[in-house]
Amino acid sequence: MATSGTSAFNLDILEVCEEAYERAGLEMKSGYDLKTARRSLDLMSLEWINRGLNLWTIEEGTTALTAGTATYSFPPGTIDFLDQMIRTGAGDINTQTDTSVTRISPSTYASLPNKLQRAKPLQIYIQRTTSPQYTLWPVPDDAETYTLVHWRIRRIQDVGAKGSYNYDAPERWLPALTAGLAYYISMKRPESASRTQGLKQVYEEQFNYCAEEDRVKAGFQVIPGGYAWM
Questions:
Q1: Any bridge partners for residue 134, and if so which?
Q2: Co-location of 81 and 129 in the same domain
Q3: Which of 5, 9, 55, 65 is the most exposed, fewest CB within 10 Å of its CB?
Q4: pLDDT tens digits, one per residue of 114-126
Q5: Mind listing the pLDDT tens digit for each residue in 139-167?
Q6: Statement to judge: residues 41 and 78 lie in one domain
Q7: Does any domain span residue 1?
Q8: Are the beta carbons of 152 and 61 closer than 8 angstroms?
Q9: Is residue 229 situated within a structural domain?
Q10: 31-51 helix and 13-23 helix, angle to the nearest 10 degrees
């Protein structure tokens, strides 16, 4: 039997919403139905951030450091840093070197006797406030040109106003996305109340399937005091 020969299936936001309404035993009829579904999708995106690490949201970036400046704002849309290095000799094949920067707690930073000490930064204190920022210690000096190389966890992009957009996630997450939206919609519509618990169960199952697959598959070895990826 012949097959299609393609593997490009995807759903745009409008199709995700239609599928979710049907699972909730409803029909999407009005512009407000689409609007409230988009709002639920954006709220669910924030929920997914809180559930754990989404590998597709990890991005590498760089920040040029300024001598005498210790504190910097996060790149826009950044939730947290996963890892960070200080790079010297950037761009030179003979001199470029990356040095690991250790993340420290607020209490450790508070206990530093001289927070104005200048040298090559070795530690980073991250402040996850409503306007996240990070502070390096020692404060960058002018002995070399330093670049902070970071692997950031970014926010999932907003759904947007156009129904023709795709959701900011790999296609393999569509089952969890659709199941989650159906559950969210059922909580807002009294006529779907009898389906809410069942839709929640399906949503949790689909999310767990995706989360189990969406993980780092590199080997690692356990060492005293922590772990190391191989």
A1: 72, 126
A2: yes
A3: 5
A4: 999 999 999 999 9
A5: 999 999 999 999 999 999 999 998 899 99
A6: no
A7: no
A8: yes
A9: no
A10: 90
For residue 174, what are the domain limits?
A: 13-53+157-197
Strand runs (DSSP E) across the chain, as ranges?
58-64, 71-73, 78-88, 97-100, 102-104, 118-119, 123-127, 133-137, 139-140, 146-154, 220-223, 226-229
Quick one: tokens of 86? Answer: 């200080």
Q: How many domains does the chain have?
A: 2
Residue written as tokens 């129904």? 163
- What lies within 8 Å, CB to CB, of 148 at 6+ separation is 62, 63, 65, 72, 84, 85, 86, 87, 101, 121, 136
Say how many C-beta atoms besides its own lie within 10 A of residue 66's C-beta. 12
pTM summary value:
0.87
pLDDT over 90 (residue 71): yes
Residue 214 — φ and ψ, nearest 5°? Answer: -90, 70
pLDDT, mean of residues 53-73? 96
CA distance 76 to 61: 12
